[in-house]
Amino acid sequence: MQVAIDLPNDFVAFHAAPALRQEITTSYALWLFQRERVTLAKAAELAGMDLYDFMGVCKANHVPVIDMSRDELAAELGGLNAP
After folding, report:
1. How much is the pLDDT for 77?
2. Cβ of 44: how many Cβ atoms within 10 Å?
3. Structural domain includes residue 1
4. Would 4 be classed as within a structural domain?
């Protein structure tokens, strides 16, 4: 599916179409992931990136990829030491 949006000509004149398309797609995928509408893997797919590159985008935009409190993580990691 394609979605068309109208942007002012003076804005578009300073951006190459492929780069602008990628930026908009990545921003939308990040927005969807941040609002828990898609998984990390699906957001990466929507952005046309591999998982690790998309995780880098998340980091650069201060979007956590692990939704776990410090206490939950400590409990999870503590369970690894159990026999």
Report:
1. 83
2. 22
3. no
4. no
